[in-house]
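User: Could you go from structure to sequence for me? I need the amino acid at each position, not a summary. Structure tokens:
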């Protein structure tokens, strides 16, 4: 199967490319490097020892993306290309709606035109808004609290309508929980621009003394230690979920939703303590106010992905923390 990976140089995209190449998939990668670096393409080749075609194309540019479809005989696509910073989406909603929606529309139109109606879409647990119940199952109530989340939910709806209009489509919507960690080679990992918003990249920068201390956003939640609880998943486990989704789409058409998480919730303080212990580094922190829009707890019921895709996570929280640090140490 020849898979078009749109946004393949990004954090989750690059790890997925490695997993696909290591499992004898053919890939064609497209990225505009808006939130990634060109070196990543060579690193993917270095890790896997495999070659593939890369095109520097903005997925919103229909003509440019169509050139790729004309040159390559594509069987289906994974759509990773999207802006993902919640705060920025509140400040620049038009930029988020434009980029995230248009890239999805353009890609679907081309998959339709070139008769390769298979798509794996990167959604997010953010579509569950304030969880109706825990653990979250795929049929829980959906709602969003920021433009980023709304783009994910809108694209889910577009894909749903597309499938209703033509059952020849094979669609897997993957709702990611909190991906962290990096490939064991230390060659690819998470590299956010500027001051990170998310917990693990922030911890890493504090451990590396690039930032003085971590602010823990609230210790008065109704959770095990009062700090926020999330379902952190190793990015390599998450990446493998895409391969399993493609395997399903190779066999049958359909519209499928899957939670990709471990099913375990860890608190902010558990994350900090595990990171310190595993890597033998200091991570000073201070308790701060709650962050607006945060929820107390969020973790997956990933039984559907297990039963229908065979999705099982392999990496522990210790592995996630060790690999995130290894990436920084190797790239100092
Ligand atoms: C956030 C987004 C979510 C998005 C995901 C992408 C919000 C409200 N949600 O999820 O929509 O899909 O990133 O990965 O932004 N924390 C601190 N200090 C920090 C950073 C985070 O204490 O400096 C805490 C948070 O309060 C939370 C936990 O760490 O309890 C995880 O936060 P984060 O990594 O930002 O992920 P989410 O908020 O779950």
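Assistant: Here is the amino acid at each position, in order:
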């Amino acid at each position: 199967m020849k898979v078009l990976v749109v946004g393949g140089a990004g954090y989750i995209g690059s790890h997925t490319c490695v997993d696909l190449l290591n499992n004898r998939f053919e890939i064609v990668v497209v990225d505009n490097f808006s939130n990634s670096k060109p070196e990543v393409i060579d690193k993917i080749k270095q890790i896997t020892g495999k070659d593939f075609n890369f095109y520097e194309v903005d997925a919103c540019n229909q003509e440019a993306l169509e050139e790729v479809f004309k040159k390559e005989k594509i069987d289906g696509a994974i759509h990773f290309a999207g802006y993902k910073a919640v705060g920025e989406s509140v400040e620049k909603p038009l930029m988020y709606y434009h980029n995230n929606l248009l890239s999805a529309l353009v890609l679907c139109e081309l998959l339709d035109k070139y008769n390769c109606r298979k798509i794996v879409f990167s959604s997010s647990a953010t579509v569950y808004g304030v969880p109706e119940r825990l653990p979250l199952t795929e049929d829980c109530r959906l709602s969003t609290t920021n433009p980023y989340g709304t783009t994910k939910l809108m694209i889910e709806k577009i894909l749903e309508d597309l499938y209703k209009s033509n059952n020849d489509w094979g669609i897997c919507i993957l709702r990611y929980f909190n991906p962290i960690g990096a490939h064991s080679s230390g060659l690819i990992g998470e590299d956010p621009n500027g001051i990170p918003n998310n917990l693990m990249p922030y911890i890493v920068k504090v451990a590396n003394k690039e930032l003085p201390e971590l602010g823990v956003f609230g210790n008065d939640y109704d959770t095990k230690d009062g700090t926020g609880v999330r379902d952190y998943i190793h990015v390599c486990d998450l990446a493998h979920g895409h391969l399993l989704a493609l395997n399903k789409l190779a066999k049958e058409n359909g519209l499928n939703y899957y939670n990709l998480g471990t099913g375990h919730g860890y608190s902010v303080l558990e994350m900090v303590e595990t990171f310190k212990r595993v890597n033998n580094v200091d991570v000073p922190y201070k308790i701060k106010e709650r962050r607006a829009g945060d929820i107390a707890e969020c973790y997956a019921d990933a039984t559907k992905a297990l039963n229908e895709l065979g999705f099982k996570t392999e990496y522990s929280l210790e592995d996630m923390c060790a690999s995130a640090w290894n990436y920084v140490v190797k790239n100092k």
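One structural detail worth keeping in mind: The first strand starts at residue 2 and ends at 6.
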